[in-house]
Amino acid sequence: MHWTGAEVPTRARGDASADPSLRRDAVEIVPGVHWIGALDPTLRTFDIILRTANGTTYNAFAIRGSEGVAIVDTVKRELSDEFFARLESVAGYEEIQAIVLNHLEPDHSGALPELMRRAPRARLYISTRATSMLKALLKPKEGNRPFEYTTVKTGDEVSLGDRRLRFLHTPFLHWPDTQCTYLVEDQFLFSGDVFGCHYCDSRLFNDLVGDFRFSFDYYYAHIMRPFKLHVMDALKLIEPLALKTIAPAHGPILRDRPRRYVTHYRELSTSSLADDICNQEKTLVVFYMSSYGNTARMAEAVCSGAEERGGVRVSLYDLEGGETGPFVDLIEEADALAFGSPTINGDAVKPVWDLLSSLAVVNLKGKIGAAFGSYGWSGEAVRMIEDRMRGLKMRIPIQGLRIKLIPTHEELEACREFGRSLSGALLGEREEGRVIDMADLG
To answer: pTM of the predicted model, to two decimals?
Structure first.
């Protein structure tokens, strides 16, 4: 889905709550469900890799049922005072029957030890994969009381009398322990990091805050994109639900047309290339950088050879001609990647490394990789690129091709054969070999 102007949230409604940043009261979302989180507007970097131009929120919630109160998630420890002040404005600690942590990362579990101390009747509910993380985060030496906890899986429920919390197991979004929690009677999904973003606006709700579309897509690209297959599995659980509200762990609460965010996640997680090529066709993308034209001639010959095999679509890109960022989408959808680089000062050239280093947000496991290049003295670039691709969990069935200085006609034929072999590997032919150094064959 492309966001359109008609879908930009409106700025204001007459029912807007008082600004929670100016006071520490809880904010009612629906009757009996309150936001008790914390605002962090000055944060500019999250987890080292994410830029946060608008800061972030740590969303936590209090749910009142006829037989007690449940808390869903907490906040990072440094903002615990805000969390406890808001909690105390809507519930007493003795009323808390259940504490649910959808995810144990410190920004969601920071206030948990103190909450458990203050709410001695509460039982903690976590996913089955969260127990080891819980023990690591909440060590006995910190003086915490023994935690009463229950592990839950998809379909398990906790009753608050007239309200039920139902759990959905959604691992690797984006930690192994992650889950979502569905408030059945209110059709309200506490989604953890799914559908979240780093965007702090004290108006809280998606129909009141500013335009957060960039932050939503940016968050997906850096947090969820490496786990697209797990996103699709989670959507199979979420899409059948009736949804009136989605409350993620970061960013605006999605009460206005929440279904469109679910639809957008599916679109972001679905390959667009499949619509443009035959389902049986494999794709090879060749990237190269050339200082004197020698590696460029090799790249063209590799592509020529690869194209001789039916069933493989080949694309060739010169890294000197553009930024590396736009190539990430191509790489994610390709079946095989080949990188060509000369060796300069005992290394591959910087644009190749820039592209390879940008691939942490892409799942490359099982893709086929290959490397080639011209060199003058030492020729380390090919082996270094191969090592990096192996580190990214790629397969290297056809080991690298190196040619000293200007390729001859015979050496260009070797490049074409390299391409043919790469296509053959894509089509299921098994071939293992050593690094081919044409200078050794002369």
So the answer is: 0.76
